[in-house]
Structure formats: C-alpha cells, structure tokens
Amino acid sequence: MNFKKISLAFLVAALTVPALADDVIRFVPDPYPIGYADQGDVRHIVIKGANVTAKEITLENVIGQGIGMSNFKYPTKIAPNAPVTIEFDMDFAGMDGQINPVVVMIDNQGTPYTAQLDGYVKAPIFFGEKMFDAGFYAPNEKREWTFYVWGTDKKSRPDLALDENAQKEFSIKTKNVMLNVDKMDQIKEGGKVPGLKVTLSTKGMTRTGWELKQKSLRKIVGFKSKKFPKATPEVLIVGYWKD
Fold first, then answer.
1. At a CB cut-off of 8 Å and minimum separation 6, what does 124 contact?
2. If you write DSSP's letter for every residue of the chain in order, what string do you get?
C-alpha cells in the first residue's frame, strides 16, 4: 500500500459525508497514514483534510500529543467547507513498531480538534526483553540483568554500547552468540541467528530531582550502535525506591 498516494476522488467523497456534531475538521483516512520510517529518521509530514462545517474556524495553535513532533505550520483561518493542510517535522528517535501520534488543533475558543495518525517505525536492533524489575531498590545497591539482542534482519549481528548518559550509572558486557528466536518467550542459544548476550549492570542508581518526590523508580537506559548510528535502542528499569 502506498501511503503517499491517497485517491483524490476517495478523499473528496469521504470529506463530503455529513459531519458528526463534534466532527469539525476531518482528515481521511482516519487514522491518517504517515507510512514507514526508520528509527532515528527525521521527516517532514504533511496531512490534508477539510473544515466540513458551514462556519469559519480560527486556529490559535497546533501541537503534537506524543513525542517527536515539532515545527507545526497551519492556516490561521479555515473557511467553511475549505481544505486544510497541516505540516510538521517528526523525529522518530526512541520509537519502535506501531505508532499512533495525535495532532491537536486548538481554535480561538479553546476547542480542540484532533487528527490521529498511523505509522510504523522500523528498528534495526531487536531486544528479547525491554523492561526489567529492580524491585524495592535503595540507591547504590548493585543489580544485574541478562538479555539477548539481535538484528531485525536476523542476518547480521548488531553492535551495542551504552550511550553517554547511561554510562553514568550502568555498564555492560556482551558476548557473541547464535540464537534461536522462533519463540519470543523462549529465546535460546544454539540457533542460526547471530546475536549478543548482554549483561547490564549497575553499581548504584541515584535518586535525584523529581525522583526524590515519588516512590516509583523509572530509569531509561539508552544504547548506541556504530552499525546503525541513527538507531536509539533502549530498555526500561522499573521498581520502587526504598525509604
């Protein structure tokens, strides 16, 4: 399916269907397809719709509900039954798999109108696990987690290192292995897929800033790859800080 080519006839026909009471600015299809992107790409996105009412709409702001959206361009006034084009930049760093960001248009009365988007981000590195439980954790306690990593093409072994921020609290050891990834809940060594056995360690996660005001622990550990410099692989560590 070519997400960039939406039939003009289909678009016009769909937009002329009578609007629902809260259906003022309509984008078709819904959700609006933005296609595929590689993790770490930055793309300029254009979505097209219409004011399907008999009143003029004055927009004061357009924002993104979700990460990665910036530099919005939009018309200040949209005439009755007139087309509308919204443009913005989308940074796909930190994203993986199916995404459904939302564009929020706010008129001069404070009324929001939304356009839900649909896309898919292709990550070059696959993690057998991406979330780890630290349990009840006191600052400076040691912890260690082991997991498997491989390329999404299942042909080439990825390289992996901690990013600069993660190096402050974590270290890793990697070992080249061949993996059997036929069952995602039973990743085993001894298969045909080149991968890495990764041991992630910490000698002590610190509790600073906003973390001092809450009990829940949430640490994002970022990685980098020389083979895939635009990729932004990461794992999440969760738990609770001990009082």
1. 38, 39, 151, 152, 153, 158, 225, 227, 228, 231
2. --TT---HHHHHHHHTSPPPTT--EEESSSSEEEEEEETT-EEEEEEEEEE-SSS-EEEEEEEEESSSEEEEE--SEE-TT-EEEEEEEEE-TT--EEE--EEEEEETTS-EEEEEEEEEEE-SEEES--EEEEEEE-TT--EEEEEEEEETTSSSPPP-EE-TTGGGT-EEEEEEEEEE-SSTTS-EESSSEEEEEEEEEES-----GGGGG-SEEEEEEEEE-SSSTT---EEEEEEEE--
Delineate the domains of the chain, giving CATH numbers in brackets: 8-122 (2.60.40.10), 125-241 (2.60.40)
* Cβ neighbours of 50 (radius 10 Å): 23
Q: pLDDT digits over 112-168, tens only? A: 999 999 999 999 999 999 999 999 999 889 999 999 999 999 999 999 999 999 999
pTM of the model: 0.75
- Give 74-114 pLDDT, tens digit per residue: 999 999 999 999 999 999 998 989 999 999 999 999 999 99
In this structure, how many other beta carbons lie within 10 angstroms of the beta carbon of residue 74? Answer: 16
Q: Is the preceding omega at residue 229 within 30 degrees of 0, hence cis?
A: no
